Structures
1.
Amino acid sequence: MPISHDQLWYKDAIIYQVHVRTFFDTNGDGIGDFRGLAQRLDYLQDLGVNAVWLMPFFPSPLRDDGYDIADYTSVHASYGNLEDFKGFLQAAHERGIRVIVELVLNHTSDQHPWFLESRKSRDNPKRDWYVWSDTDTRYQGVRIIFVDTELSNWAWDPVSKAYYWHRFFSHQPDLNYDNPDVREEMWKVMKLWLEMGVDGFRLDAVPYLVEREGTSCENLPETHAVLKELRAKLDQHYPGKMLLAEANQWPADLRAYFGDGDEFHMAFHFPLMPRMFMGLKLEDRKPITEILKQTPQIPPSCQWTLFLRNHDELTLEMVTDIERDYMYDQYARDKHMRINVGIRRRLAPLLDNDRRRIELMNGMLMSFPGTPIIYYGDEIGMGDNIYLGDRNGVRTPMQWQGGWNAGFSTADPESLYSPLVLNPVYGYQAVNVESQKRFDHSLLCWMKRIIKVRKANPVLGRGSIEFLYPANHRILAYVRQLDKESILVVNNLSSTAQAVELDLRRFKGNILIEMFGRNIFPRVGDLPYLLTLGPYQFYWFRLRRI
Amino acid sequence: MREMIVNELTQATQELVREFARFLPRLMVMLIVVLVGWVIAYVVKWILRSFLRLIKFDKLSEGAGATQLLNKAALPSSTELVSRFAFWTAWLGFILVGVSALGILGMQEYVTRFFVFLPRLLVALIFLFIGLLAASFFSRAALLWAVNTNMPSPRLLSSAARVLITVFTASAVFEELGLADSTMLLAFAIVLGAVMLGLAIAFGLGGQDLARRFLEARFAPEKKEGQEREDELSPL
Amino acid sequence: MAEESILTDEFLRQLINVGEADVLVGVPTYNNAATVGQVVQTIRAGLLKYFPRERAVIVNADGGSRDQTSDLVRGASISDLQHSTDLNALRTLHSISAEYAGGPATGTALRTILASAELLRVSACAVVSPESTTIAPEWIERLLRPVYQGNFDFVTPLYRRHKFDGLLMRNLVYPMTRAFYGKQVREPYAAEFSFSGQLASHFLAQEIWTHEVGHTGTEIALTISAITGGFRLAQSFLGVKPHVDARAADLVAAMRQTVGALFWSLEPNFSLWSTKNDSQPVPTLGAGQEVTLEPLRINRKRLFGMFRSGVAELEPVLKSILSPPTLSELQRISALDEGDFLYGDDLWARTVYEFAASYHKAVISRDHVVQALAPLYRGRAFTFLVENREASGEQMEQKVEDFCLTCERLKPSLVEQWNGRK
């Protein structure tokens, strides 16, 4: 199945997020590699996803899981070499799976040759590639992101006797995007990977590119200008390639990253995700509908990306204080579960391993307007290990089967890059791909089915959304519409059976066809349409006039 | 002539004595019947009362709400009432039987009429009972209302209510008894007229004050304001 | 015959949409548009502030208002349908309003609220008067929290009142309820109170609903039922009680609602109250009750006049109610000058007890018994006002306490009269 030539392919995509290191190890060193990833592409094709987002795999001291890049042009030795990458890329494309590569624009590792040069002396040609200062009082009032580990956005460099600016860890100095050389160098990096055939970039930490005194140094117009410049070059030389923004901001601020369709193609909808968990716990649709109502319209060529969980903590920056306290109390009573301003847990443990809730959340993810992302392992309900440091608890090896190292590697278990999850409930002997493939009712098989239905209905990726507001606030109901296609989605957020009356008068005369079993429900008449839903149940109906 | 007179007198006397001699046993019979009737009626009353007490008739009637009604009409307890009624009915029956034993011409007919009349009497009694009840209730209600709203002359109002209802009751009772001939009607009209006149005078005298207050309130409200403000205290 | 349904179809429909809830605030209304808007908004603020995570609902049981009452209540809803993003609310708040059947009656409204509470399986339910314009968000906390935390089943309020406000409460309802049922509940007839879900079910199962107290005076009947049911009581200090517009208050109606209901309750609870000889304090939460001392002009002359004419005019009625010594004592004091007049604790307590006994025996219509007490109460109120003209709040409290003790002391006389013949 070759990849399509649709320029808007990302609108219909279902993205699988994975780190090379975590997936499959072919050389027995305890670390996953590109050859392993290529070997497991059949699994991804069977699952039904049509895009893979690879987290940073570049040479790096790995002090921030690869987000501290020391060389943008190569592959970290543990994962293989450029040839292995190219082999993987080709194999993926053969299976109709696109590859999105992650680039960190904002900063490099302090081990990157550029920074080593820059810190050498104050008159080094690369001195101006980073943000240097004699004092640590510039840009005061700019928030610190990693509040648990960093005290300031400035760090002292004993070599060149000056402060350098860093928004993340102190070993990650920020590049200076006011410098045209930096911008040119970054475009060269992108070109390199585009030439190899990657289909898009996820650009990490984009709001922080440019600094200006007296501002929050986030979302500045100058930053947008840098991004627009990159996009223009991309469109000019590599049409059909995609840019995905990582910007943990409120929807109104996020909107700017789409520009007039001339900046990013896609951006993560960060505030939605915690509110989905909140709505589920409150058994109340209000948090979800409210955030989606606040979500601004985006240009027609643009798309939101949606996710339930990812490699980071479940971020609670984009919620109010009262909501944050609630989320902590409900989802992270144990302090080990919290990190920075968020919760470091996987999907299944967050939802108490409740299959009904896992299905409901995935059902909403797949039916909201946007492109869904599945974090590796969540399709089989993998657990986490909150006692590993930082966010490593959600980055444990993929659980392929119940045998040696969960089938991930032939190395000694002690030499794995991370311990496996051994918990009797979530451990690899209980939760693994092989066992779930055997049974039709497994979460994995269910995920395959819902992905199939989602892919078969472009209206879910591209259609408009209109909320119905039934008086029963436990029911979240909406109509997705594209041209003449209409899909009605009804979700019961509550743990108990509910009755709901839907006002479907404008669809009078249509019959409802349940999309998983294709069973026919009664025709819509003048009266409110009565539905009953079991605990956490949801329906997808195609509306058809016959 | 003299002899004739004496003769006549003797004959008349003899006739009288003979008549009396003939009547005396009947009188004796009547007295005995009445006396025995009283004894029997008393026994009936005693047995009935004992029986009713035994089955706790008072409790029953209390449950049915009859006791309250009787209390309100200022009547004795229901057991007492029923047994007294039985006593009087029984004794009255015996008296009438006794009277008929006298063999007085036409009396027989009256006795028969009495027994025919009995049900109507009963109905009339019930009317009377309800009427008295209503009179007592409404007169008291009027009294309490008048007192609690600071109306003048509450007693007068209360009495007026009582008289009015009593008069209506009386007329209904007489009607039922078939005694409502023109005399009764006239009497009723006179009483009613008197009551109305009394009421009119009473209201006129009392109403003078009321009317003044009303007019004051209507046309000179500002004068009243301060006074009214401090008037009533809130109860709760 | 099918059992009558308490809730109308419309009410039920709205309750289904609300679904299970944790806390409920009930507001019985009838043409309260002037104040209900402010009250409901304050309730909402209280719920948002103190119960942000709980599933809360405001239930307005309306007696068929012809003004804007219902709209004002519904306006307090928080849902995703309305744009109220400035409100920092976690979840949907339903504020529903529907008319109950059978015409305006506080009892029916309360019953509707109770049925709603039971149906929604709430843990704690509060009732708030739509006329309490001095309400603050804290009231909701103070009413609901003790119940919601599971410590108490029934919470009655304490208010900061005007010195001479609530005279009937101080001189009759509180002391008598206390003497009868042995619990020192200061406001047994309260406009605001709260109860647990369990107690709501208990209330609903009571006999009262088929009687007159099921319509008026229901509040006191509920208090008594909470006491006699052995539920855990508490009093919670709320704040300032608004001064009721005097002209709107009808003493006889108030007596029916309080004294009538209180006397009525004695009948089924005889075995309970006849054996109690003392009283226990009820746990009090918050600042305790206080009085404000600014002067209130009351026409004492009129009070005395009405008492005097009442004793004279009602003689035949009083004769059937009171014992001869009590009546003659009454007649004696009513002949006194205003300056010498004193309707003492002892005599007043005996008066009330004899009225209670006569009510029980129904010597005359029971309603008339209650009405006949009104003029005598005016005499007592007159004495109370004169005695406490210069008294401080504490001194006045002491007087009330003394009277309560007198009532408790004289209670055996009532038990005696209860079963004795008149």
Note: The longest helix of chain C spans residues 393-419.
2.
Amino acid sequence: MLKEIHMPKLSPKSDQYFFGEWHKQPGDAVKEGDVLFEVETDKVISQVESQEDGVLKEQNVNTGDTTNVGDLVATIEVA
Amino acid sequence: MIYVPVMSLDVYHNFGLEYYLMTEHHFNEPVFMLWSTTPTVMLGKYQDAAAELNVEAVKRNHVKVARRYSGGGTIYTDQGGCQFTLIYPDDRTEIDFSSGLELIQKALNQIGIKATTDSRNDLVVGGRKVSGSAQYVTPGYKLHHGSLLFESNLDLMNQLLNVDPVKLAAKRIASVHQRTVNLNEQEPSWTAADFRENLRQAVYDLTSFQEYHLIADEQARVVEIGQQRFADPKFIYGRQGQGAFQVKRYFQGGGLVKIAYSIYHDQLADVHLTGDFFSNLDAVKFEHALDGTDYDRQRVSNVIRDQLAEDPILGVDADQLVNMLFDHV
């Protein structure tokens, strides 16, 4: 089953974040709690963890993209 | 709260120490540190070195270049200033500067410095910035660090920090420049060391922290992290390991020629030609011809020869321009 990963809300002040780098690549096994990617907002780098166990299927954003809270960021194939 | 004394002035060591305490030691209570550096510029995690730094001034003044794991803009630090670090065990990923800034602000107020916060999470005195802050968050821990200017070399700082929007690579974070001031305007009788010690004492009065000294194995691990993660030129200057360069040469009878460029994936990028030379050369066309060319002397030479064959530069030949791109590295 495919599970969509959406950009969580990370800052009380802002809903628009600078997308940093991916820590997992398509095809990588992902466990709950693994860092998937990081974003920068308001001078803060935040690492976002996976809530799922599975395999990263697709990355929908790239380094430097502006992303909004709720945007589709990735899909994970879960068992 | 735990206080970890820091003796090193080496920025890579001290960033390694922060990272070690955050990701490997895992204290169950907040950790506080005060530290300084030799003259250093610190880029934010996703900044473009070429656009932020005057590389020539950095080299001339033997200033270290470092990249933080935190966000935000480029700052200058030296032994006239003081860095603070706070590491919190924290499961919330939401951003919050308030607890760290409140502690530093209270400590400054206690030693007679009337600092307040502004909307960018900076500390200001009389409207001028004296401290900037940034954070990074890893699962379970949050690190907040910041810089306090006491008697830092602000003239050198202004020479080193550039912010050239023309050179800013697409999709990078640009610094926001603000008016800064040294805190010794408030307490001219103190040295930077006095300031740091008074601040440490004030934080102790507010928190009754316990001191923790790293054992030898931990110190060795900190050095290792500093070298592997923070002193790595690939991390500091870009993923491909090459830097951003600005070369300036004066040619008798030709004038001043300035070329700025970066190298990405072993190709020239962001080439920028300026100067007071005489030519009908279209600089933008010249730059576009070089962008994407393999960083190979013969290939670059061919492109420059073709460009100058159409529009020569008075008193400067193709070989001299090629030398500027290869012989200074």
Note: The first strand of chain A starts at residue 2 and ends at 6.
